[in-house]
Amino acid sequence: MSSSTYFNGYNFIVNSFVLEKIHSYNLSLNEFLLLMYFLNTNDKHFVITDLKKSLKLSKEEILSSLNVLIEKGILFLETKKDDNGVIQEYVSLAKFFELLDHNDKLEDDKVEEIKKHIKDSCNYNLSDLDNEIIKAWIEKGFDVDLIKKSIDESIYNGSFDIRYIDNLLYNKDINNKKEEKKPIEPLFDYNWLEDDKK
Question: Considering the entire predicted model, what is its pTM?
Fold first, then answer.
């Protein structure tokens, strides 16, 4: 499945699988557009004038976005000589595709770890829907230990219940986010410096 993005008269295709993975990198719109440009073009030359024309971004915006993508290890620049011996800069997406493969492997390992924990804890036979929900937990970024604790809590309360565990995880996620937003209160509301002056 894919969606399309409009660039300078051309429809650039965005694969839904790639889009899903990109989301985890917290890219800005400009960074996302620059990455999409190079994912959709066969010409990997890094030419500012061409990018400005296609993306409708300033030189500063393009260079800033490029730096972020390089820092995040998503792409990098290579220099090569063309047929005339002129040195040209090219964008390489090799690291990006390596990251996708690596992340997939890590996610698969986490899913298998959770499935093993379920089998060892209660020998429950997971359905296809159960497997998809577990995979969704990992893709959302839930900690494996937190998932295991929620599974154990469900079993302790009577039986393995995937929907009960799902509710537990999302409630804990909401509570954690609320805790993160709480301001840190001072331990003592007392001005020691003023006291010393007395």
Answer: 0.48
